[in-house]
Write a structure and sequence with these properties.
This protein has 220 residues and is an alpha/beta fold. It is 38% helix and 11% strand.
């Protein structure tokens, strides 16, 4: 039984009982018992645990967890504090610095974003070590679609930062005119040049303030 200890529990209770999720659960039991899977099973739902439904101000959608030891901890693009900052996150921090003027963070743990209302949601919440997308197609996509569908119904405005094709495909769910959708290339080195200049961090804060909400402090 999953316990998120906030308002997501009631909202997702029925989802956790559906056949597809029960099949996903059995798949994960087998994977965690026989292979190296990231993140730690206790960290799978950290994005939802750290950012209650009612508190979401912005959503950043990632692909799936990092595939190297000591990195993934349940938040899209974030790594554990002792880990080296991955190339995609380095590009995010470069854009953040140019966009807002704040100092480039000294570590890659984005828990402080999550605690301020930034839902850092991967499309797929688990992965086999060294094998990107290895847990795609097992049911996570349907689960995270439901999370976004629930957010889409909220009246309180929020910003969606959709970086790259996968995240933008997920954006088909957001049709509530109260919300802001920002799209850019993925921040990976392969597309980083097209990510720079998107100014999503300042645009998000401007949107929040215009709607009577407090802005997000993006720096460490």
């Amino acid at each position: 039984m999953v316990h998120l200890n906030n308002d997501w529990d009631a909202l997702l209770a029925a989802e956790f009982q559906k056949d597809y999720y029960q099949n996903l659960r059995q798949f994960l039991k087998a994977e965690y018992s026989t292979k190296t899977i990231y993140p730690n099973m206790h960290d799978i739902f950290n994005a939802l645990k750290l950012t209650p439904y009612a508190n979401v101000k912005a959503v950043i959608v990632g692909q799936d967890p990092y595939i190297n030891a000591g990195e993934a901890h349940g938040l899209a693009f974030s790594v554990q504090e002792h880990a080296s900052i991955p190339p995609s996150l380095k590009n995010i921090f470069k854009e953040l610095h140019v966009d807002t003027g704040c100092s480039i963070p000294t570590h890659g743990n984005l828990t402080h974003w999550a605690e301020q209302g930034v839902l850092l949601l991967n499309n797929v919440l688990t992965v086999q070590a060294k094998r990107s997308r290895s847990h795609a197609g097992q049911g996570w996509e349907r689960f995270t679609d439901t999370v976004l569908e629930l957010l889409n119904t909220r009246k309180t405005p929020m910003a969606y930062l959709l970086w790259g094709r996968d995240a933008q495909t997920k954006g088909r769910i957001i049709n509530n005119p109260n919300h802001l959708i920002l799209q850019a290339a993925h921040p990976s080195p392969l597309a980083g040049g097209r990510f720079f200049g998107s100014r999503h961090f300042s645009q998000t804060n401007t949107f929040l303030v215009q709607n009577g909400l407090t802005e997000i402090h993006w720096g460490n």
